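#structure-requests
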Amino acid sequence: MHDEVMEYLSFLIEDEEYGLNILDVKEVRGWSDVRKLPNSASYLLGVLELRGEYIPIVDLRQRFNMSPSVLGKTTVVVIVKNGSGQSLGIIVDAVAEVYQLSAKQIKSAPGYAKVDERFIEGIASIDGKHVVLIHLENLFDFDELQEVAQPDLLNEG
């Protein structure tokens, strides 16, 4: 039986390591100012125009009900996409590693205290540490964020 290996980009939030399927990652970039959106969720910091596309930028720490990220020149934004090709930028404390994981290395995540388990794809044990694999589509409503980010809703002027 062939055990498929997938690659995951890991990142840190409050010294905890999390991972995303690398196929969902478009790019990793530094912080640049975003256009704030009125009446939006606290974790939605605004939108960034990137190559003609308006991308919602969210603070993963706030989405996980932690203290907000401190934004500055060392801030890291991971641009991700969902299965429909919609983009989203997530702010993380730091990018860590790229891991190659087989399905048997990933365990289910019952009762992981820091993050609601609906948002977790699984937990991988790597060299004695645990990496929580995030399920992006459950964590964010991409359709709703894209709707909020559309330029016609931004009041120019």
